[in-house]
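Annex B.
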Amino acid sequence: MTDMKDQKDKQTGDLLASPDAVRQARYAERMKAKGMRQRKFWLTDDEYEALRECLEELRAAQGGGSDPASA
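Repressor: predicted structure tokens.
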């Protein structure tokens, strides 16, 4: 497999190995291990609040935590 990094690129550096990128990748792995997938929705603020509350109730009823970040 060929190296995709442009050897002349001095601006981006090694972003893929940055602490934030590593942390985010580990978080994504934990969520995937729980069977979750990241999805993007366009919501109003009211819809977001209603959906967040609904998810908290659903996860509590399933015996899971309400905050995926606590994983």
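The CA atoms of residues 5 and 14 lie 9 Å apart. The mean pLDDT is 83. Further annotation is deferred to the next reporting cycle.
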